[in-house]
Amino acid sequence: MKILAFSDLHLSRARAADLVAASVHADLVIGAGDFCNMRQGIDEAMDLLRAITAPMVAVPGNAESAPELTAAALPNMTVLHGTGTEIGELHLFGLGYGVPETPFGAWSCDLSEERASEMLAPCAAADILILHAPPKGLCDVTSAGQSVGSTAIRAAIERLQPRLAVCGHIHDSWGSSGQIGATRVVNLGPTANWFEVTP
User: Fold this and answer.
1) What is the tens place of the pLDDT at every residue in 160-190?
2) Is the pLDDT of residue 82 over 90?
3) DSSP letter for each residue of 1-66
4) How far is it, in rounded angstroms, from Cα 124 to Cα 139?
5) What CATH number does the domain containing 8 carry?
């Protein structure tokens, strides 16, 4: 299956146009959160992506809540947040929001490590983990050199060993990747990232 994945669109009209154009070659499109800005503009963000016809799977970032994304979701979009789905015999599980809690204030949708661990626990197996926040120690370094990823997410990747784990959230680490055991981890950013994953 040819998969197009991105994160952190943040209402960029130019980035959205590029993603829509690329999506004609995709069997599946994955959005790893932060479609809008500070809980504003989720409907506009969905309109920017409306021309995508491939099946889509998305998780909420810290810039939109799960109910907000679900309410605005496109007809071909499945929203995951502590839940899973199956697309073309691939098992996907998603967890959105910032993990651990961000310093951004009341608008930011965040989870504690404990709550993230609880929401990841029901997942027994996955081919692809779709996350907004990166795992601790990988794809999680800020411009100040701080590692701000999630220990709960890292533990879930170590336990499940999916073939692919995608994330975003930390803009300074867009485009970075690495391995946790057998799992390739990629911080996507708002550009077209391509993956080939077979059932």
Assistant:
1) 999 999 999 999 999 999 999 999 999 999 9
2) yes
3) -EEEEE---TT-HHHHHHHHHHGGG-SEEEE-S--SBTTB-HHHHHHHHTT--S-EEE---SSS-H
4) 24
5) 3.60.21.10
| Count of structural domains within the chain | 1
Q: 3-class SS at 68?
A: helix
Please, what sign has the CA dihedral across residues 180, 183, 189, 194? Answer: positive
Cα 195 from Cα 74, distance rounded (Å): 22
Residue 122 has which token pair?
């029901």
Distance CA 57, CA 84 (A): 10
Given a cut of 90, is residue 199 above it in pLDDT? Answer: no
Domain limits at 183?
2-196
Name the pTM for this structure. Answer: 0.97
b/e sequence 27-58, b meaning 16+ C-beta within 10 Å: ebbbbbbbbbbeeebbeebbebbeebeebbbb
Q: Are 139 and 149 spatial neighbours (Cβ–Cβ below 8 Å)?
A: yes
The DSSP 8-state label assigned to residue 129 in this structure reads E
Residue pointed to by tokens 């130019």: 14
Q: Where are the beta strands (DSSP E) in 67-170?
A: 77-79, 83-87, 90-95, 128-131, 164-167
Dump pLDDT digits (tens) for 4-47.
Answer: 999 999 999 999 999 999 999 999 999 999 999 999 999 999 99
